[in-house]
Design goal:
The longest helix is centred in the middle third of the chain and has 33 residues, at about 125-155. The chain has a five-stranded mixed sheet with strand order 3-2-1-4-5. A two-stranded antiparallel sheet has the order 6-7. It folds into three domains: about 5-115, 2-Layer Sandwich (Nucleotidyltransferase, domain 5); about 125-215, no CATH class; about 220-365, no CATH class. The chain is globular, with a radius of gyration of 26 Å. With about 375 residues, the protein is α/β, with parallel strands linked by helices. The chain is built from twelve helices and seven strands. Helix 8 (about 235-245) packs antiparallel against helix 10 and helix 9 (about 255-260) crosses helix 12.
């Protein structure tokens, strides 16, 4: 005889998993079950014990540094539903000042039974691998910027200025190699900083080439190609955005996509008083950054249609052309009404997600899964 669904909360770390269970309502008990090792064999034994007699299980755990291996292992089991929940959206009592793995596991089981948790989207293994590669390039870009800042700060302290054009061009790099410093320590220091910069630049270039090489084998390569019809998007920027949001068609509307990237407006309203403030800035920072960087290109009116790949559908070209004119007008309209440039660009980035959502529907291959 079935005992109903059992709700299981897991609190994971790199060595152990704390387990709590909640019996179905009404009156179901919530209790701490115990601690197991964070290994595949221990998880297999746990599921076998809890699902004894064919009982269905609903398992949840917080997203964290341990990744999605546990999710994929549990999701492959018959009768087991697994969800990875967003830590920032877990309800917490304001007066609760005690946090342990045991209490967290019990809270997860209780809240999942009450349907108070928000599950996140879990990418498949191929998508996660491409996302890791794109993020590795973003780390390399940060390292290049850091090396440039170190060199610039050092030269500023020495009173050395470059006045022959834009910094960090090929000509500027050659000029750095010709500098003659008085103290040997400074000469060695500059040589080491230039070496670090060259290595970071080479790493960034290699990772960009790897992305370009592996892109055709990615299931969302069609979307990366289609997004490049929009102003502000080339291969790396488009791949970055797609790797962070996945397939936009999984969202029911552009508004939900905007909320996923934290581009909805915060609101604190009560009674007749309405107060709307800044953006929520939830979700992927990397995806939001790629979107904002692309939005800056709409500062100027379009002069001509952007060249796109031959295989891009005509419907995508039409959407991109409409976005180019509309978003540029939107930017100028907001400036005329006294908005700061940063605010106008954020508004343009938010609205551009509507066009990205439309492009995903227009460019999707017929056999591509939603």
């Amino acid at each position: 005889m079935s005992k109903g669904t059992l709700y299981v909360g897991l609190d994971t770390d790199k060595k152990h998993i704390d387990v709590a269970v909640a019996e179905p309502l009404p009156g179901g008990e919530v209790r701490y079950w115990g601690k197991i090792a964070n290994t595949s064999a221990s998880v297999e034994a746990l599921i076998k014990k809890l699902g004894k007699g064919g009982r269905s299980l609903v398992v949840c755990y917080e997203a964290g540094p341990c990744g999605y291996g546990l999710y994929r292992q549990l999701s492959a089991k018959p009768g087991v539903t697994c969800e990875v929940v967003a830590p920032s959206l877990i309800p917490r009592r304001s007066g609760d000042r005690v946090k342990t793995n045991r209490r967290d596991a019990v809270a997860l089981a209780r809240l999942r039974r009450a349907e108070e948790l928000t599950a996140i989207w879990v990418p498949d293994e191929a998508h996660e691998a491409m996302r890791d590669l794109v993020r590795a390039r973003a780390t390399a870009v940060t390292e290049v910027t850091r090396c440039q800042q170190h060199i610039g700060s050092f030269l500023l302290r020495q009173g050395i200025a470059y006045g022959a054009g834009a910094p960090w061009s090929k000509k500027h790099r050659q000029w750095l190699g010709t500098l003659k410093l008085e103290h040997p320590a400074h000469r060695l220091m500059l040589a080491e900083m230039l070496l670090a910069l060259d290595q970071a630049l080479a790493r960034r270039r290699r990772l960009s080439e790897h992305i370009e090489e592996l892109l055709p084998n990615w299931s969302l390569a069609w979307l990366v190609e289609a997004l490049q019809a929009l102003r502000g998007y080339r291969l790396v920027n488009a791949a970055t955005l797609v790797s962070e949001i996945g397939d936009p068609r999984r969202f029911e509307s552009p508004r939900k996509l905007m909320g996923f990237l934290g581009l909805n407006i915060c609101e604190r309203s009560t009674g007749e008083k309405q107060r709307r403030t800044r953006l929520t800035k939830t979700g992927s920072k990397r995806g939001r950054k790629a979107l904002i960087e692309a939005a800056w290109t709409y500062k100027t009116p379009p002069t001509r249609a952007k060249a796109v790949a031959p295989g891009v559908p005509a419907a995508v070209r039409e959407i991109a052309d409409k976005a180019s004119h509309r978003l540029s007008r939107r930017y100028r309209h907001l400036l005329r009404h006294g908005k700061l440039k940063q605010v106008a660009v954020a508004a343009v980035a938010r609205e551009s997600l509507g066009f990205i959502w439309a492009i995903a529907h227009a460019a999707a291959p017929a056999a591509a899964p939603h």
